[in-house]
Amino acid sequence: MMEVTTMIKYLLCFASLWAIVAADTPANCTYQDIVGQWTFQIGESGHDRSLNCTNFGSQQNPPKSKLRVTLYFPDLVVDEFGNNGWWTLIYNQGFEVVINGRKFFAFSMYKKHGKDYDSICDQTLPGWSHDIFGRNWACYTGTKGTPLTTLKYQRNSVVTEHKFTSLKYQSNTTLVGEINRSQKSWKAAKYAQFEGMQIEDMIRMAGGRKSRIPSIPKPVAVRSEHARMASDLPKSFDWRNVEGLNYVSPIRNQGSCGSCYAFASLAMNEARWRVMTNNTVQPVFSPQDVVECSQYSQGCEGGFPYLISGKYAEDFGLVLEECNPYKGSDGSCSTLQSCPRVYSTRYEYVGGFYGACNEALMRINLVNNGPMAVAFEVYDDFFSYKSGIYHHTGLKDKFNPFEITNHAVLLVGYGTDSSNPENPQDYWIVKNSWGESWGEGGYFRIRRGNDECSIESIAVQSFPIM
Ligand SMILES: *[C@@H]1O[C@H](CO)[C@@H](O)[C@H](O)[C@H]1NC(C)=O
Ligand SMILES: *[C@@H]1O[C@H](CO)[C@@H](O)[C@H](O)[C@H]1NC(C)=O
Ligand SMILES: *[C@@H]1O[C@H](CO)[C@@H](O)[C@H](O)[C@H]1NC(C)=O
Ligand SMILES: *[C@@H]1O[C@H](CO)[C@@H](O)[C@H](O)[C@H]1NC(C)=O
Ligand SMILES: *[C@@H]1O[C@H](CO)[C@@H](O)[C@H](O)[C@H]1NC(C)=O
């Protein structure tokens, strides 16, 4: 495990020989950093998706054309000729632009600087562009501001490299007891499977150290037409039991690989295949394919559902589990090339762009379209969740040095617990990827309606192409 925990998978060079580290990207860019005028330097087009953009910008692979666009908050983009398109920020990691029939996606630039990483939000790493049908690929890089300032960059923010701990987890009955006593909503338990596990592995299981987004958007106000639509929905709903039928694929266990984003993304696609085919097609997709083969994520070091359930599934497609069975570790792409790939499309942040989400929109899309990928902040007490409706108690696990992470999971339902009529509690039903023995048979419930642990901020959905 220790060589992985160095988090340095490989070094590569770009333009002025900045060293770039590939891990769950340390970029930390906000809307404020990204909004403005950009110049995209675009390479030769006409390629297929096997195009490797890693060394784009070097002499062997120079830019051929330019596109100037202006990004307005929150989702309008206008090019130099006045054509309109749309864009979205992708967490704090980069942004995607769709204009003139082409899509552009790149991670924001970052650079190692001693022990820290500088986010360089006014530049991008080499990214991928193709037409909206997934043809005609080209590499590109983006530079914000006037093109002549290319080599001046802003250190917008600094992410400090973390010290890794070699400590092993030891559950403490006192914490479990304190959680049990301090509130009535949920129960904690000790888990034999966590006992003696490396703390680093548990942090990775919950999304990884760098998954935390320091400026998660708050849910937007509910528009009146959405409030009306939401009030027509059933009071409770569960895709595991819709008139006796289960549309959710079985619980899985991601192990100590930081691949929750892949499990959540594939679980959504699996469930939506079931929903769209009245349960006659029940695929189980391969997260190992995503871990090993996706350039839109960082293997066992993390990634994000928008880029996998949506963008990877649209650009590269998904394969069934047997095409690359789960190993839970990084490796080179070993997916059987003879396996057919299936695709998804219309991927989006619920609400249309990053930061446009809220509880009503989540319920409307959940009931009408199927389960969706959500993310939430994991605090110390969450690991001990056993049953009930989770909310963060604020109790610290003093013996296990956890860190707040952002964990991707699958939203499958909602309801209201009225067992205490004086204090009915609304909740979400969520599928985790920590095995069946964790929580309520692998699921948990969490408070609904108050953006508990930011779970109502960044839901993502996509639609299988049948
Ligand atoms: C792309 O090329 C770089 C070196 O030019 C190589 O290290 C990397 O593995 C390639 N990536 C893929 C996905 O083939
Ligand atoms: C990321 O950026 C936000 C907003 O600029 C800032 O508040 C936060 O401290 C930064 N986080 C890190 C880890 O650099
Ligand atoms: C468990 O926690 C309590 C108080 O928080 C502490 O006194 C005790 O030493 C801990 N036990 C172990 C085995 O770490
Ligand atoms: C906490 O509550 C759960 C459920 O009632 C129980 O199984 C567990 O033993 C309790 N643990 C402690 C330390 O109180
Ligand atoms: C969907 O499947 C159920 C159970 O197999 C069946 O009763 C129902 O008629 C099917 N619906 C349609 C529209 O085929």
UniProtKB/TrEMBL annotation:
Signal peptide positions on this chain: 1-23
The EC number(s) this enzyme carries: 3.4.14.1
Catalysed reaction, written as an equation: Release of an N-terminal dipeptide, Xaa-Yaa-|-Zaa-, except when Xaa is Arg or Lys, or Yaa or Zaa is Pro
Role, per record: Thiol protease. Has dipeptidylpeptidase activity. Active against a broad range of dipeptide substrates composed of both polar and hydrophobic amino acids. Proline cannot occupy the P1 position and arginine cannot occupy the P2 position of the substrate. Can act as both an exopeptidase and endopeptidase. Activates serine proteases such as elastase, cathepsin G and granzymes A and B.
Complex formation: Tetramer of heterotrimers consisting of exclusion domain, heavy- and light chains.
Family: Belongs to the peptidase C1 family.
GO biological process, one term: proteolysis
UniProtKB keywords: Chloride, Disulfide bond, Hydrolase, Protease, Signal, Thiol protease
GO molecular function, one term: cysteine-type peptidase activity
Domain Peptidase C1A papain C-terminal as annotated: residue spans: 233-463
Protein name as it appears in the record: Dipeptidyl peptidase 1
One Pfam family matching this protein: Peptidase_C1
Cofactor(s) needed for function: chloride
PROSITE patterns: THIOL_PROTEASE_ASN, THIOL_PROTEASE_CYS, THIOL_PROTEASE_HIS
TM region positions: none
